[in-house]
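Next up, sample data.

:::
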Amino acid sequence: MTKTDWKAEAKALKKKVRKLKDDLTAAAGPVVEAMGEAVSDVVSAAKKALKPVSPLAPASFPNLPTIRGVEFAAVEAGVRYQNRKDVMLVRLAPGTAIAGAFTRSTTRSACVRDCQAKLALKAGTSGAAIIVNSGNSNAFTGKIGDQAVAAVTGAVAEALALPPARVFSSSTGVIGEPLPFDKITAKVPDLVSALREDAIEMAAHAMMTTDTFPKGAAATVQGDGGVIHIAGIAKGSGMIAPDMATMLVYLFTDAKIAPATLQKLLSRNVDDTFNSITVDSDTSTSDTLLLAATGQSDAAEVKGPVLKAFETALKGVMHDLALQVVRDGEGATKLVEVRVTGA
């Protein structure tokens, strides 16, 4: 065999080998894909096994009533977590009154400072919105954090045709890392198109961090001329002490009630509920509790005996959510409730 013939045969052999490799790759494709899916399922199951649901968790998420004038949506933005919803949006009808309570930390996050400033303004009659992300708390981020809040709330305001002063935001997760707000703003159109009245449980899931279960509670009150509904969701699992905790709590009602009265009710009952629980004695920079009243119940304005009944029901929902946060304390196996009488 001449040198030329040898080279030609070697070239032909290499071509056959390449074709054989291509054929094997094509044939193995579905198998490799199936193996990849199986590995993903195993990893997901392993993560769940490493993070079991708290033994003190309720059997299931409660059936919360629809609140007229409130819509929810949640999407995957990839702020920190993958393959799970991590941003939620709430749209509130025009005329909604909003009250709030926040962390007393001197190092409040950018979102908290922004919410406090907006609540200090005259409310107006426009609608409102709340946007929440998990995975990054946007705390200890300086001017960059303020810019992130402005970008996120601005995107929501533009998409929903709202004044920026009526868009509130919260962030929960790691501290000290810049918030990748572009991932959130890119998902605002998807959030808006997904808004619906019955997606409150999805919203509760989206704001979870180290939580092992979503938290919800509800109550109803017989008003003058109709029923008043209250529904709330919360997240929180660690850094629970002594005021509120690493908690985000959102309460919604269709009651007709003045903003000043709403704030008084919230402030009066937060000490006996969220400010009375502890898990690990650390105070968070991002604690936020917002209460929104849309005024769309058939019942008349809340006052007199109905006001007292409404406050009792509201406190009951707050107490229920506070206890759920404690039940989900990191590593918790016992729940201790101390009642002092005659002091």
About this structure: The CA atoms of residues 255 and 295 lie 5 Å apart. Helices lie at 3-50, 110-119, 142-160, 181-185, 188-194, 200-206, 259-270, 305-327. The longest strand covers residues 226-235.
